[in-house]
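Practice record 12: protein with (S)-3-Hydroxyhexanoyl-CoA.
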Amino acid sequence: MPELVSMRTDGDVAVITIDNPPVNAMKHEVRVSLLDLVVRAAGDPAISAVVIACAGRTFVAGADITEFGQPPRQPTAIAIIEAIEASPKPVVAALHGTPLGGGLELALGCHFRVAAPGTRPGLPEIKLGIIPGAGGTQRLPRLVGMDKAMAMILTGEPISAREALDSGLVDEIVEGDLVAGAIAFARRIVAGKRPLGLVRNRDEKLVSVRDIAAFDAAAANYTRRAKGQNAPAAAIAALRGAITLPVADALKRERDLFLELVAGDQSKAQRHIFFAEREAAKVPDLAGVKAHDIRKAAVIGAGTMGGGIAMCFANAGIPVTVVESDDEALARGLDTVARNYRNTAARGGLAADEMEARIRRITGTTDLAAVADADIVIEAVFEEMDVKQEVFGRLDRIVKGGAVIASNTSYLDIDVLARSTARPQAVLGMHFFSPANVMRLLEVVRGAATSPETLATAIAVGRKLGKVPAVVGVCHGFVGNRMLRLRSIEAERLLLEGALPQDVDAALTDFGFPMGPFAMADLAGLDVGWRMRKAQGLTAPIADELCERGRYGQKTGRGFYLYDRGSRTPQPDPEVERLIVDAAARRGLARRALGKDEMVERLLFPMINEGARILREGIAQRPGDIDVIWVYGYGFPVYRGGPMHYADSVGLRYIRDRLAAFAETTGDERHRPAPLLEELAAAGKGFASLRG
Ligand code: 3H9
């Protein structure tokens, strides 16, 4: 086995190589060896410069996240950076891949940085609910300026190699052999006797931001969007230190803030999602199964979902044919897609030539025969079983052998659809979320007959489209919508019991959801849910009555709320209040004041209970899969880790007892604690204990 960290010499240049696949995370053993070799090279009279490089696909992509939550072990990354800074010889970081987090901080501690083209450096700690903890908030603004550093640290997004060069983050882009280029660079430094300034002591880019008011105004742009989260405010506090404190004090402050966050619940929840996201697409019996190559795709239906799905393929560089039944609907769908692209380009999110290329990758037709050579066909027609069955039957006669035939249905039975074809093994569900080109979740629905190759291909395609695929089984509404249904029922009940739409929505937005259920329903269009309920023989007392009055939500200017012309801001409507009060009176219900905490429990605990049933039925493989589905598809606050992780943090005994109490008062059998929840609560365990 190769050593985790090794050193070789090239003349008088020492090359230290880290080799800890897959991403060269700086686990404890790596830190021990790296420190040892840095000190050795610094003290070796035969060595005049040092290069730190990595084997494999990337320079160090950060601290080893699995070590967080355990007591810190010496040496920390800080000790290594201090040893580098104390080195009398130039230390050059040779960057490639994704130098992230602690990896980039290590590079920032070096005297110089060179990078391969295509390198994408960044400080993504904020996505894990923490801040850089090894000097990133101090050294990065000193190199690239405060504005850019703030953007990188507060969004967590990496930058390109070009931007890194232009902003001063790296000193040179090396074409060709990176390590050879880094060695040559180091030799030039030695030969030119360039002084070894430390990044921590550079101040020239901070002089202009001593204006605290301007700093605070820029910071507010980021923290405003981060309600409820601790890390963004901490990141700002640490960055502020760069312009208000001596560097040693600012570094200490950053470290204290980092340690506090890393020990906190929010980071724990976000780390859970980081790993759950990667696990959700893993299916034990798929090991070794090869996904088919996807070179050409087809989407049936040019409506909102169909158009959005086509954009996903076009964005990923895959040509896609969109099929509609008539010319007018096709033109409307393609126009919407083109408008979406133009809007993105106008906002600066896409270069004009790239926009054109993406639009060109989408071809429209009314001839279903055009999908004959597609490697994957995704059906996104009207949500009705007979319509879809008919489409599947026709596709079966046209689509080439070996292609995947997927349905974007959000609740219909995939097995019934599969039986409309003579190749049920090629059929599965690929449930995108609206807007499909934006939302990251992809529920991949495995039917009873779906073959391993079909499933592996759908997962691989999902990844290629930049989605987070989560594999689920067949049941009405799959995982996400099946749980959502419980929440919707409860939200309506709360109205009858005494709340108003704005109260219920505020309870959930305060909890951290971007939107409450009623504002969300207005946005989606109340008629959509109404039609689905009617098809399934279901009712929703208030929503149904609003629809009967022609109040379909934002599109009609009235729904659960009122909307001023052209506005998307919901305003409470006295007519809705009267409607609710009357509906409650007709049912003989005495309305009462409901507290926010009570509403949150009433909305979320029945969903968690349903999650327990879903797990017992094997519809979801793991609790983390349900969490990923809710975070990426339904806006569950990531810093609470998804419903099942949240349930564990609240305690399953408490949830069981509350559900039992709800069942007594509502008489709703679905509130009875699910057997799995009962068992875990009785054993004093959480859902996390179900992991193998
Ligand atoms: C930090 O550095 C704090 C410092 O400021 C303070 C102290 C120094 N640790 O994503 P992939 C695993 S915080 C442990 O599928 P890709 C991952 O779970 C850290 N494991 O590959 C997966 O395992 P498996 C800041 C890690 O090519 C495998 O590697 N850094 C880590 O699509 C492959 O990952 C970050 O937040 C890690 N740091 O994407 C970077 N990273 O195969 C987090 C990955 O068993 N990582 N794994 O499922 C990423 O963003 C992506 O993994 C990366 C590669 C872009 C690097």
